[in-house]
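Folding follows sequence. Below is one example:
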Amino acid sequence: MTDPAPPEPAVERPFPCGLIVLAAGASTRLGQPKQLLEVGGQPLLVRAVEAALAAPVWPVVVVLGAHAAALRPLLAPFPVLVVENAAWSEGMASSLREGVATLAQFSRRLEAAVVVLADQPALDAAVIRRLIAEHHASGRDLVAARYSGRHGAPALFHRRLFPRLAALTGEAGARALLNGGDPPVAAVELPALAADLDTPEDVRRWRERNA
């Protein structure tokens, strides 16, 4: 009698998760499109898109706005969905609404979406993977980076939260949702993401520290 065949290894079920890159801001304090600032020889927007495409997410939606004409050519080489937010001047909430709507049109099977900012120089694919891993480990509907004493982007939102994202208004985006305690947040400590490049002085200091 031959020995029974060993059991087939368990196949991990794919996790359908999209990603939204918010890149619609006007960068008024900086005086130039922040998304075009070069870090490591690449514009910040390109770095964010490449980080997303190297992570286990699909599709990747890029929301443009104030500087769409200047930024769109940068995205031509990449397999991303580009949407222009005509209401970008309202603030980040309008871009979140556009991103969520685009993901919903692309697929009804997505279980979550990661939202990232195009202007965080420390963002990479490993950050996105950590958020997804924390979602699996904690079972929480909301997972967010924590830095500077609060929760912020990037953040992962389960599809149960999509209606709340779609209802956001104003400049604050999802800040109240991320820090309001409802739903509870699973935090991932990522202090490097606190780097803020809002002004020319911010950029100068950051480049000096990272020369």
Residues 8-12 have pLDDT under 50 and may be disordered. The longest strand covers residues 150-158.
